[in-house]
Amino acid sequence: MAALAAFGEQPSGAGGLRAAARALAGDSWPGFVARRLARLLVSLAVVVTASFAMIHLIPGDPVHAALGPTADPALVAARRHQLGLDRPLPAQYGSFLNNLFHGRLGESIISQTPVSQIVSDRLPATLRLVAPAVVLILLVAVPAGMIAAVLTRDGRRRRGELAFAATTGVLAALPEFLLAVGLIALFAVTWPVFPVAGQSDLSSYVLPVLSLTVVPTASLSRVVRVEALRVLREDYMRTARAKRLPARLVYLRHALPNLLTSSLTIGGMLFTSLLAGTVLVENVFAWPGLGSTIVQAITTKDYPLVQGVVLVYGTFALLITFAVDMAVAAVDPRSTVRGN
Amino acid sequence: MDTKSGYVPAAVYPVRRRRRLFVVLAVASVASLPLSGCGHSAAKGAGVGAPSVSGKGDPSATVTIGIASDPGNLSPTTALAGTAIELNGFAYDRLIHIDPDGRVVPGVAESWTASSPSASSSAATFTIRPGVTCQDGSPLTAEDVAAEYNYIADPKNSSPMLGLTVPVTAKATADVAARTVTVTTSAPAPFIVEMTQLLPLVCRKSLADPAALAKTSNASGPYQLSEALPGDHYTYTKRAGYTWGPNGSNNAEMPATVVFKVVANASTAANMLLAGQLNIAQVNGPDTRRLESARVAKQSTLVPFGFAQFNEATVRPTADAAVRRALVEALDLKQIGSVATGGTGAPATTIGELAPNPCTGDSVTGNLPAHDLVKAAADLTAAGWAKSGSGWSKDGKALSITQVTSSALGPDASAAYELAAKQWSDFGVKVESKVVDATTVVTTLSGGAWDVAWIPVSVPLPDQLTRFYDGPAAPNGTNFGSIANPDYTALSKQAMAVAGKAGCALWEQADAALVKRVDVVPIVSNQVGYYGKGVAFQVDGSGPIPSTLRAS
After folding, report:
1. Is there a contact between A110 and B72 (Cβ–Cβ < 8 Å)?
2. Lower CB count within 10 Å: N or C terminus of chain A?
3. Of B232, B261, B439, Cβ closest to residue A300
4. Is the pTM of this model over 0.90?
5. Chain A closest CA to B392's CA: distance in Å?
6. Does any domain span residue B456?
């Protein structure tokens, strides 16, 4: 706290504490960052505890799943003891937290491989799908939504508006795996332009990234269009147009920054939802990522693996939200995200 | 009574994942059982059978095989997953192999003898082929094989191979000069030779640190692991100087490189086969139609699939044989089996033994009661039940049963067992369904609150089934249905004392006794189909057989 308060005025004694408290509660950057960090840590603790509680409270036994229903009861008991599963739940939670603080994620019960190794093997593959997908979504959806808004503002081009709304509506409603299967049927089986599945050269990225991007692009472009319509009706936009500024300046300098707040927020949420939503796409494209790993881990109740992967996903989701909050606060000084 | 381990591939996973080999370690509960009739018996073998596939192949080709899940830890003495056992089949050789007709074919052991010196012990001697080497250049000798036997048999090492490939209580000694390994047990192990078909041979050095082989190999077989990318692919390259395949064959005609690619989705595997990205993949379900119409060649192996067992604990209505008989007569098993396998199954001929198996006889056909509603009603009436209104009751208690089905067997099986429930309720039996998965099946069966379980139990050898249908009930044992069938007990006891294939007739009689008393109801076997393009091969329970792989 003292370190944080040092950002503000020179603290001394009780006055210093009060200053620190003011800094934490008020509209200052250090206070904002500190509050967000504290919230991040609390959220992480909740994620860790919830994942532990959920996977342990659902009935079922990972040792039976690993050894098979024909396992000898004595062997099952020995293996449960070896894994510490015969101890009371609070004790198991205690040692789980203890291991976590020491950076130990344990070993998968089913595949007998360290969880940290599984995560470090699989996460990069998932990120290599998700990162280009997010960039592509933002690069396509924002201009598309803006162009649609410009062309259809003030009730112009009713048919165009209908066409845009219908197309993006249909695309946004498509299930990802259907799209993936359709893309494979067209571009890998009927016309073998791209490989059917697997991670190899650049061409192997085209279909999976495309099946990840189409749906979010359609829904984001609808949001951007509505936001852009709102911005285009603002007084400063009318003023800019009245001053006969070139279109480039009107839209890029005056309209775009005012759109960014919402686009950034949605973009951050997109990134997190895509990270976890790659499960089906990874499955269809035999992609060696983390999404398929967690499904299998949950169905076999592979405790260490589920906890490890949930922790990684949770940390990513929370960090991205944190980063987006920071970015929004920095980009838009009027944003209320920093409090009043 | 010897307790053995088994695995239940058919029990807990949908077809593509079903081959996960559930290996179980059993601790022997050795009881000296007096036996009459069967004394000393012996089986000898050397050079029987011919290599099942020979033929020309492109020795420089790369063959890519799709696997449904990542194998995880590949260490041969600790690996559990079915895919790990499939991969290890390429890198680690076996003492013997079993051909499709159930005959034992020499592998690293050029000859062997097996015997049952007494009713409660077994012995086998293997003569190890000279010139067998491991990947690091060290020779694989009788001493290495004996060391591996003793390592797995030591309960301290908790190897899941114990009871599955190495009999419990096994002790091995080596005679270096004669190149022989002698294995003795103090518990009956009738298939002491046959069970080694799944024992991956390793050099002694690898026993000291099994974890070192988790993602690499020290191969004794035709291939060695050259690249492991978990979750993506595993590449195996052909070893030079390999001459100890089945019947002394070499790997000259086998493809230079075999790549195992992890493809979890069956439709994706089918697409990759059609596009030429895979050469072999296991595909079941609707995707097979596309492959059939593209004339992709198929090899298949049958696994027990449609199967019911009854809970005969005294409090359950199914403790009464007449009730069990009537329940089976009330079902159209042919229809149920057809629904469960999507019309592609074959009538069951075993109560749970998987191919390749020394015992190839039929213990099921003709032993189950036929579908006959009139006779079912008569059987129930004779047993003291009366039909009032739409339901059967006895002493004021309605005939109500709980059936256990596994979600892991797939949607077709779920539909089939709903159909069974419908046929029973039409007959006047109240049916309640409980759905379990891989993590809850054992706790549910041990809990005892069930009457019929549609859970197949599959093992490689008949003696490994005894602890499911005889002996102590749960929670102390794995006789989940509390079955006490005197014929099965007596016949399996006799069969335990006969070494090898010679005991098959007794095992088949023992299994048939369970079917006749309606303790178990084997209905249908399901085809596990492997499709291959640009490649010839044969399959068994663990996947494509390495020695039969030929690229064209």
Report:
1. yes
2. C
3. B439
4. no
5. 33
6. yes
pLDDT in tens, B157-191: 877 788 888 998 999 999 999 999 999 999 889 99
**Which residues of chain B have a CB within 8 Å of the CB of A187?**
none
Is the separation of the CB atoms in B85 and B542 below 8 Å? yes
Residue A163: enclosing H or E segment and its boundaries? helix A158-173
The answer to the question of residue B109 being in a domain is: no
Instruction: Mutation target for B interface from A55, A70, A82, A127: give the one with most B CBs within 10 A.
Output: A70
Identify all chain A residues contacting B475, using CB atoms and an 8 Å cutoff: 73
Give A267-286 pLDDT, tens digit per residue.
788 777 787 678 888 888 88
Q: Cβ separation of B7 and A72 shorter than 8 Å?
A: no
Q: Which whole-number Å values give the CA distances from B84 to B68, B75, B205, B275, in the listed order? A: 11, 8, 21, 26
**Nearest chain A residue to B215, by CA:** A113
Measured on CA atoms in the order B433, B439, B440, B445, is the torsion positive or negative?
positive
In a domain, B201, yes or no: no
pLDDT tens by residue, B2-24: 333 333 333 333 333 333 333 22
How many angstroms separate the CA atoms of A325 and A319, rounded?
10
Q: Residue B31 pLDDT > 50, yes or no?
A: no
CB-closest option in B7, B268, B477 to A285: B268
Say if CB B66 and CB B263 are below 8 A apart: yes
Complex-level ipTM beyond the 0.85 threshold: no
Among B40-44, B56-60, B105-109, B470-474, which is the least confidently predicted range?
Answer: B40-44
Q: Between chains, do B439 and A61 touch, taking CB under 8 Å as contact?
A: yes
- Token couple for B335: 């229809």
Residue A31 has a pLDDT of: 80
What range does the domain containing B346 cover?
303-527
Partner-chain contact A69 B438, CB within 8 Å: yes
- Positive or negative torsion for Cα B539, B540, B544, B546: negative
Give the pLDDT confidence of B414-463 residue by residue, as tens digits.
999 999 999 999 999 999 999 988 788 888 898 889 999 999 988 888 99
Q: Which of B245, B131, B259, B116 is nearest to B192 (CA)?
A: B116
Residue B5 in any domain: the answer is no
Query: What CATH code is carried by the domain that includes residue B328?
Result: 3.10.105.10
Percentage of chain B surpassing pLDDT 90? 58
Q: Contacts of residue B268 in chain A, CB cutoff 8 Å?
A: 184, 196-197, 283-286
- Contact state of B22 with A68 under an 8 Å Cβ cutoff: yes
